[in-house]
Amino acid sequence: MANRSRSTTPSSCLLLGKPVATWDLLGKSLLERLITRLQVFGVDRVAAIFEDALFRSPQLPGQKENAAASGSAFWNNWDSVISEYLQHGMETLILTRVGPYAEFDLADVLRAHHQTGSDLTQVYRGDVPLDLVVVRASRLREGEGSYRNRLSNLLRNRHIYSMGGYFNPLSSPLEFRRLVTDALLGRCSIRPVGREVEPGIWLGPGASIDSSAMLEPPVYVGAHSSLGPACKVLGMSSIEKACEIDAGTTVEQSCVLEHTYLGMGLHLQHTVAGDGKLFHLEREIEVEIQDGRLIGRPGIQHNVTRAARSIVNSVLSTRAAQAASVNHQIAAEKSHER
Looking at the chain, which terminus has fewer C-beta neighbours within 10 angstroms, N or C? Predict the structure, then answer.
């Protein structure tokens, strides 16, 4: 039913087999959030290059290129994109690897870069260099060899910009979970995509919550996701977009990634679930679930659970009717006493 493996995320920055930055986090991926942030600061052209063809993402808003390759082909694509930008007269390039999540004032980084007259400015956190540099395009047009080599030469005389804002290395599923928790608690600038229907409860557009379901704030339920009868979402949990949580299932201190189906009567605790897999945050073990009736994709016909769901709905309706009858009888007795 399941295959287990120890996490190798710290070296690969993967979450359940995919880059951390491509999974939704409270309604929008970190890659999308980065692109939006760049556009706010006036960046008018964005290219994303993936280091593995398996991870090619859909076209994102404002993104002009979306290439994917492995090994030397990746650097060939990288050189090709840089060459095109330089030919179009770009004056300043911002180059970054989407990995750690860092909050800093990009406008201040650009201001420092121009004021110091530097050819290249690199963002640091303490003594640790981050994979984000601002480069004077004219210097990349000079010299010979690949643009990668020219960039390496400029790094020798870099100007260091020290950041002091919120930072998460995102090198493990535990840190992904911590970022979700910090965002729900307002400890960073990430905000849930949707509306806050009650204090600490956010719903994305089209989210459907059964009247018997229970949400304990702070929690997030993404766009077009549904919670069935008697479901519970507790302990700073998040349900991303297009998920289906079947009757009687509890999600506690966990993250359910987009396009995930959870079967009836499950109890997820301290886990990240998605793409038919679970990562247990305390044991740091990844489990692949081969039975789609437990964890799979929404929209699949779950014949067994359909029948069981009808029984659950019938029981819940009966209990609701009984409660209403008792309340009516109590009210009638009080009225008679008067």
Answer: C
For residue 258, the tally of other CB atoms under 10 A from its CB is 21
Phi (first) and psi of residue 19, to 5 degrees: -55, 135
Number of domains in the chain: 1
User: Would you say residue 99 lies in a domain?
Assistant: no
3-state secondary structure of 57: coil
pTM of the predicted model as reported, rounded to 2 decimal places: 0.80
Q: Is 181 a domain residue?
A: no
The answer to whether residue 275 sits within a structural domain is: yes
Angle at 222 (CA atoms; ends 219, 228), nearest 5 degrees = 80
CB hemisphere CA count around 73 (13 angstroms): 8
Kind and range of the H or E element at 79? helix 72-87
Q: In this predicted model, what pLDDT tens digit does every residue of 125-155 receive, in sequence order?
A: 999 999 999 999 999 988 788 898 999 999 9
**3-state DSSP helix/strand/coil % of the chain, to nearest 5:** 30, 30, 40
Ramachandran bin of 236, using left for φ above 0, alpha for ψ from -120 to 50, beta for the remaining angles = left
Residues contacting residue 73 through CB under 8 Å, at least 6 positions apart: none
Q: Would you place residue 71 in the very low, low, confident or very high pLDDT band (cuts 50, 70, 90)? A: low
* pLDDT of 26 higher than 90: yes
